[in-house]
């Protein structure tokens, strides 16, 4: 039955290749990076294989920007655990690949993850011959797992997470999903809930190591520059961080200047009385122009980060239209509202904001970071509200009551410190898997037990 299911899936994946080509061409018009090395997407490579280094070839797959940044956190301890290792870094998105370039050392390799057909997967594995593979967070593909098993490449899932929505989807396709999860060599989960969901699909959960993002160190220079700019601001700065489609419109509905004060409500009137400096940072670069136009159409003046030199330029809205500078934006902000959490999109990385020492307000939708979000709220390291209007009211409280703001910052610092260590644990387990292979890694392949990470 499993062979029939995989064969049917493989046929559908093969038939979908023209659709994939069209999708990539369409996305390349907005993000040229998608036009790069298209042959790699379909498992075609130069005849000459890449030269090997003295150590093992470790393949890390980080599909997009967030996963690539998680991979960056893991790489330091991993290179220490495996001296001389050669990194093979793969991605699925243009932003992930662009970010990944910064992680490469001399002799390292970078490519697209192939489309999940048997031929493309086989071409990838036979060209690169990785000694071990690591999928970051969520990317589990049936043919990729099956291909690794056939060629004896141990394939693990690190920093693994699975929310309830994804679990229900996998259960509906259990005939395909269960063999894929069960075919992994090891799974290291972020939290207990993730571990239970993954184990219910047959995944070999070997431990709950925590979230790698807790081990990230904010860029000190960017953070210092942001704080210096904040000190020079005439108004308190409220940041909408990593906003997604529809959230800027929600914000505008609450603050647009032509709204009669009588309809605004006490919370809105109060925050407007503070004369706030708004800072918007969209999650995706292709939306920078769209968000700028949206603000301008609402009658707001906009100053873009790309036009700043030594300091922000005065305007109603500062628009963060740069990549890799979230530490600067969090340093610049007195309070941040977390994007992706005010529309049903699952939220963004809240750990980075807390680590940067920025008080954080969450909307109701944080299912992509469920355990981290709930833990932060319970610890008082972040504040949860029901909607955008309530978020503005909470921001007002934090701006007007320094004691409340300081309490959130203190709890945030303790919360981050308590959850560090995932990178070290994951690197040690991966080094063991690389050295002993799937059959000999007894410790890391021990069955999952419902106990907390140390």
TrEMBL record:
<dbReference type="InterPro" id="IPR007507">
    <property type="entry name" value="Glycos_transf_N"/>
</dbReference>
<feature type="domain" description="3-deoxy-D-manno-octulosonic-acid transferase N-terminal">
    <location>
        <begin position="38"/>
        <end position="216"/>
    </location>
</feature>
<dbReference type="GO" id="GO:0043842">
    <property type="term" value="F:Kdo transferase activity"/>
</dbReference>
<comment type="function">
    <text>Involved in lipopolysaccharide (LPS) biosynthesis. Catalyzes the transfer of 3-deoxy-D-manno-octulosonate (Kdo) residue(s) from CMP-Kdo to lipid IV(A), the tetraacyldisaccharide-1,4'-bisphosphate precursor of lipid A.</text>
</comment>
<dbReference type="GO" id="GO:0009245">
    <property type="term" value="P:lipid A biosynthetic process"/>
</dbReference>
<feature type="site" description="Transition state stabilizer">
    <location>
        <position position="137"/>
    </location>
</feature>
<dbReference type="Pfam" id="PF04413">
    <property type="entry name" value="Glycos_transf_N"/>
</dbReference>
<dbReference type="InterPro" id="IPR038107">
    <property type="entry name" value="Glycos_transf_N_sf"/>
</dbReference>
<comment type="similarity">
    <text>Belongs to the glycosyltransferase group 1 family.</text>
</comment>
<keyword id="KW-0808">Transferase</keyword>
<keyword id="KW-0448">Lipopolysaccharide biosynthesis</keyword>
<feature type="site" description="Transition state stabilizer">
    <location>
        <position position="213"/>
    </location>
</feature>
<keyword id="KW-0472">Membrane</keyword>
<dbReference type="GO" id="GO:0009244">
    <property type="term" value="P:lipopolysaccharide core region biosynthetic process"/>
</dbReference>
<keyword id="KW-1003">Cell membrane</keyword>
<feature type="active site" description="Proton acceptor">
    <location>
        <position position="67"/>
    </location>
</feature>
<dbReference type="InterPro" id="IPR039901">
    <property type="entry name" value="Kdotransferase"/>
</dbReference>
<dbReference type="GO" id="GO:0005886">
    <property type="term" value="C:plasma membrane"/>
</dbReference>
<protein>
    <recommendedName>
        <fullName>3-deoxy-D-manno-octulosonic acid transferase</fullName>
        <ecNumber>2.4.99.12</ecNumber>
    </recommendedName>
</protein>
<comment type="pathway">
    <text>Bacterial outer membrane biogenesis; LPS core biosynthesis.</text>
</comment>
């Amino acid at each position: 039955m499993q062979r029939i299911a995989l064969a049917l899936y493989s046929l559908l994946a093969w038939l979908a290749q023209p659709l994939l080509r069209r999708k990539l061409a369409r996305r390349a018009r907005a993000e040229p990076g998608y036009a790069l090395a298209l042959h790699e997407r379909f498992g075609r490579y130069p005849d000459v294989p890449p030269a090997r280094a003295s150590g093992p070839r470790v393949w890390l797959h980080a599909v997009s920007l967030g996963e690539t940044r998680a991979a960056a956190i893991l790489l330091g301890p991993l290179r220490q655990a495996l001296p001389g290792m050669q990194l093979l870094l793969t991605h699925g998105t243009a932003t992930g690949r662009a970010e990944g370039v910064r992680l490469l050392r001399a002799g390292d390799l970078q490519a697209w993850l192939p489309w999940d057909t048997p031929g493309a997967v086989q071409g990838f594995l036979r060209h690169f011959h990785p000694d071990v593979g690591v999928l970051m967070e969520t990317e589990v593909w049936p043919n990729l797992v099956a291909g690794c098993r056939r060629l004896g490449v141990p394939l693990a899932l690190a920093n693994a997470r699975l929310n309830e929505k994804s679990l229900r989807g996998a259960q509906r396709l259990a005939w395909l999903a269960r063999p894929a999860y069960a075919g992994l060599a090891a799974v290291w989960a972020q939290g207990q809930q993730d571990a239970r969901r993954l184990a219910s699909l047959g995944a070999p959960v070997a431990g709950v190591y925590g979230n790698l993002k807790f081990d990230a160190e904010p860029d000190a220079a960017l953070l210092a520059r942001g704080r210096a700019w904040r000190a020079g601001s005439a108004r308190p700065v409220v940041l909408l961080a990593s906003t997604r489609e529809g959230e800027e419109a929600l914000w505008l509905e609450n603050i647009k200047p032509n709204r009669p004060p009588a309809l605004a409500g006490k919370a809105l009137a109060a925050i407007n009385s503070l004369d706030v400096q708004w800072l918007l940072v969209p999650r995706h670069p292709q939306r920078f122009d769209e968000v700028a136009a949206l603000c301008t159409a609402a009658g707001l003046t906009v100053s873009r980060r790309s036009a700043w030199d030594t300091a922000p330029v005065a305007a109603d809205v500062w628009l963060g239209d740069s990549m890799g500078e979230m530490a600067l934006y969090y340093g610049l902000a007195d309070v941040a509202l977390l994007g992706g959490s005010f529309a049903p999109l699952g939220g963004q990385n809240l750990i980075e904001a807390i680590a940067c020492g920025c008080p954080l307000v969450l909307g109701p939708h944080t299912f992509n970071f469920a355990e981290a979000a709930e833990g932060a709220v319970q610890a008082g390291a972040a504040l949860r509200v029901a909607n955008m209007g309530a978020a503005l009211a909470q921001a007002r409280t934090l701006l007007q009551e320094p004691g409340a703001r300081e309490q959130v910052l203190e709890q945030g610092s303790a919360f981050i410190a308590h959850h560090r260590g995932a990178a070290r644990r994951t690197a040690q387990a991966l080094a063991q898997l690389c050295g002993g292979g799937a059959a000999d890694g007894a410790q890391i392949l021990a069955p999952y037990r419902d106990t907390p990470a140390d």
